[in-house]
């Protein structure tokens, strides 16, 4: 007899019915059950069939499963009469949790079939798709430990749930129109409006209204992507004048608005269903220009919740679907958190216990770059190239996530927000507490950014654990090393906007030689003055003026800056009052963009760098002139570059 323990994402993904079918096919006896340490199997049969069983568990497991470890132990034979799926066992181990999964093709066919019992049922799911992370309260992943515990299964659902040969066997979110969650449509006073919620949603979207739509892991704010005036109103309400919005589009229409390959279509249709940033279709005038202004790319994604497919259709093929939050705050899980942002709300009564924003991927020539790793990916761990004591990495402050390690697994949080406000702090601590509980991790060490003013630094200090303060760009490079399983020392280049340096300057144009334990700063851009810190970053013309002054260049020609403003900055520079020294590549981009007159004011991070990238997108490097720079000792002096660029622009 073999006793097999399987660890990984093996709960809520159809793993036990897969094991049951495989054992039945091979005439094996025993049982399978879920436990907090994974899936446990005891199995008896011929040696040939047992070997085949183990081999096929590895090769044929369900598509949403992820096997991290298999432990096999030979035991004394037990006389089992059959193979069965047993009730879950609570032990003191830990298991992994599946991400939320986009509706699968089987469920989509049933959803679209008028003769199916779940035709147009908004919460159709099976073991291959549907909510997981967003509804879990505790492990093991059983209905009683999810937000579905409030919905009593009807006889129809119960029969499917209990049938090992049915793909809904032990699908914990299983539901149907008779027993499951329901949609509601509310006005901006949160009173329910009579009629079919989906029909109301479509009607008001077509009328140019802005609607909050409760999804799997949080709210979207939606409007018609073809309606310029409505998009402009959404920008006004969200205080988001320029940052691009993402568009949810029908599968049939995507090629009308972006250039997309077959491989990218498969990624859009995958269980993670991310947003992909793709080139806009040339001469496409369908999407309102202010959805992604002055941007040759567009973030697009396919419907992934069942009811998205009812909303996105012939009459509404393209919807702006932006994160349902006030700028920089965490994603909303309740419509009342979006008060004054929406005209109406499409909501439902299945509680979101764990929020996760849409994941974002930028396809590149050699690989897909994950810009935001959230829904569809978390809390699936990354594999470290080494074993670690239990450690909490607290993150920085922008694009906030934390990381917590156990052995060679690294668990990343979803995207948590973009500032140190109370809502983000509460969300951070709540999610961290859950991760520690779910994965049975008690951190022994904490790590934080070197920047003393980050709120995450305060969190790390309050743990009372041995604390490592890590230089920002060293952390960036080490993260890339871990992601790509690199164990040897590297030359790491970190071009960034801001990062607190060991000399208390603002770094960001760095070349290191490093391993996981330490780094040597081999080269960096020369320090330039940054008057006013964050205020200068929001007004890049001030950076340009300051860099010109430092480089000994006359600045009389500069536009978008008054003589009074020049005088104030000049005095700041002379007296070194509230002036920071920076080696940041991001600030150099700001300087060049300001010299070109691109932006009088920055409204979102990396706006200058993106604008310069877009200007260069259609240029061949072989046709471009280079600008000089000098290397003195370990310093890359950009003064000649600024002089050359200024001469060319002038």
Can you give a write-up of this model?
The protein is of the alpha+beta class. The chain folds into 4 domains: 84 residues, Alpha-Beta Plaits; 166 residues, DHBP synthase (Alpha-Beta Complex), CATH 3.90.870.40; 90 residues, Nucleotidyltransferase, domain 5, CATH 3.30.420; 122 residues, Tetracycline Repressor, domain 2 (Orthogonal Bundle), CATH 1.10.357.160. It has 17 helices and 27 strands. The strands form 5 sheets. Strands 6-13-7-8-12-9-11-10-14-15 form a 10-stranded mixed beta sheet, with helices on both faces. A 5-stranded mixed beta sheet has the order 4-1-3-2-5, covered by helices on one side. Strand 7 and strand 8 form a beta hairpin. The longest helix is centred in the middle third of the chain and has 17 residues. It is globular, with a radius of gyration of 27 Å.
Tally of distinct domains = 4
What is the name of the CATH architecture of the largest domain? Alpha-Beta Complex
Q: Please give the alpha-carbon distance between the first and last residues.
A: 82 Å
CATH class of the largest domain: Alpha Beta
**Radius of gyration in whole Å, from Cα?**
27 Å
List the helices and strands and how they pair.
Elements: E1 2-9, H1 15-25, E2 29-35, E3 38-44, H2 47-59, E4 66-74, E5 83-85, H3 105-111, H4 155-161, E6 183-187, H5 197-206, E7 211-214, E8 219-224, H6 228-238, E9 246-249, H7 262-268, E10 275-279, E11 297-301, H8 308-311, E12 318-323, E13 344-348, E14 360-363, E15 368-372, E16 382-388, E17 391-393, E18 403-412, H9 422-438, E19 445-449, H10 455-462, E20 467-470, H11 472-483, E21 490-495, E22 509-514, E23 519-525, E24 528-531, H12 534-538, H13 540-550, H14 563-575, E25 579-582, H15 585-595, H16 607-616, E26 630-632, E27 635-637, H17 639-649
Parallel strand pairs: 2-5, 7-13, 9-11, 10-14, 17-19, 19-20, 23-27
Antiparallel strand pairs: 1-3, 1-4, 2-3, 6-13, 7-8, 8-12, 9-12, 10-11, 14-15, 16-18, 17-18, 21-22, 22-23, 24-25, 26-27
Helix pairs in contact: 13-14, 13-15, 15-16
């Amino acid at each position: 007899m073999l006793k097999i323990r399987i660890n990984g994402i093996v709960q809520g993904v159809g793993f036990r019915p897969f094991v049951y079918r495989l054992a039945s096919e091979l005439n094996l006896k025993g049982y399978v059950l879920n436990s907090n340490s994974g899936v446990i199997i005891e199995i008896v049969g011929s040696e040939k069939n047992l070997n085949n069983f183990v081999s096929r568990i590895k090769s044929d497991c369900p598509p949403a499963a992820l096997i991290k470890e298999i432990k096999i132990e030979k035991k004394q034979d037990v006389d089992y009469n059959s193979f069965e799926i047993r009730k879950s066992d609570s032990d003191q181990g830990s298991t992994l949790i599946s991400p939320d999964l986009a509706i699968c093709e089987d469920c989509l066919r049933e959803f679209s079939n008028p003769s199916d019992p779940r035709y147009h049922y908004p919460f159709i799911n099976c073991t291959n798709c549907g909510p997981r992370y967003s509804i879990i309260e505790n492990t093991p992943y059983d209905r009683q430990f999810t937000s579905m515990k409030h919905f009593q299964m009807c006889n129809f659902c119960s029969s499917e749930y209990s049938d090992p040969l049915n793909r809904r066997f032990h699908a914990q979110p299983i539901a149907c129109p008779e027993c499951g969650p329901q949609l509601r449509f509310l006005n901006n006073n949160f009173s329910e409006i009579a009629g079919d919620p989906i029909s109301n949603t479509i009607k008001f979207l077509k009328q140019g209204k802005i609607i909050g739509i409760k999804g799997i892991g949080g709210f979207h704010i939606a409007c018609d992507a073809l309606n310029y005036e409505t998009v402009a109103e959404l920008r006004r309400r969200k205080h988001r004048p320029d940052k691009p919005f993402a568009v949810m589009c029908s599968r049939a229409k995507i090629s009308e608005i972006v250039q997309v390959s077959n491989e990218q279509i498969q990624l859009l249709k995958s269980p993670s269903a991310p947003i992909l940033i793709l080139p806009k279709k040339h001469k496409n005038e369908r999407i309102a220009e202010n959805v992604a202004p002055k941007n040759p790319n567009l973030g697009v994604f396919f419907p992934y919740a069942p009811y998205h497919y009812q909303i996105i259709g012939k009459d509404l093929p393209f919807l702006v679907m932006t994160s349902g939050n006030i700028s920089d705050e965490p994603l909303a899980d309740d419509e009342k958190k979006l008060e004054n942002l929406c005209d109406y709300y499409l909501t439902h009564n299945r509680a979101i216990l764990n929020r996760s924003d849409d994941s974002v991927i930028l396809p590149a020539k050699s690989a897909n770059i994950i810009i935001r790793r959230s829904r569809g990916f978390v809390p699936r761990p990354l594999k470290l190239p080494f074993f670690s004591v239990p450690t909490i990495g607290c993150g920085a402050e922008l694009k906030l996530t934390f990381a917590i390690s156990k052995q060679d697994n690294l668990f990343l949080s979803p995207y948590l927000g973009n500032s140190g406000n109370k809502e983000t702090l509460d969300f951070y601590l709540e999610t961290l507490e859950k991760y520690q509980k779910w994965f049975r991790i008690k951190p022994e060490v904490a790590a934080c950014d070197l920047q003393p003013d980050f709120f995450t630094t305060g969190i790390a200090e309050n743990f009372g654990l041995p604390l490592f303060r890590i230089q920002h760009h060293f952390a960036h490079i080490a993260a890339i090393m871990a992601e790509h399983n690199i164990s040897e020392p590297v030359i790491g280049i970190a071009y960034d906007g801001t990062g607190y340096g060991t000399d208390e300057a603002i770094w960001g144009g760095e070349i290191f030689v490093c391993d996981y334990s330490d780094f040597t700063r081999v080269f960096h851009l020369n320090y330039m003055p940054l008057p006013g810190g964050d205020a200068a970053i929001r007004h890049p013309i001030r950076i340009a003026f300051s860099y010109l002054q430092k480089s000994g260049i006359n600045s009389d020609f500069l536009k978008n800056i008054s003589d009074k403003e020049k005088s104030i900055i000049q005095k700041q520079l002379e007296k070194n009052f509230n002036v920071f020294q920076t080696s940041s590549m991001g600030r150099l981009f700001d300087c060049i963009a300001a010299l070109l007159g691109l932006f009088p004011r920055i409204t979102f991070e990396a706006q200058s760098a993106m604008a310069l990238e877009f200007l260069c997108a259609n240029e061949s490097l072989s046709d471009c002139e280079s600008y000089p720079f000098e290397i003195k000792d370990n310093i890359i002096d950009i003064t000649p570059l600024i002089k050359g660029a200024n001469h060319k622009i002038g």
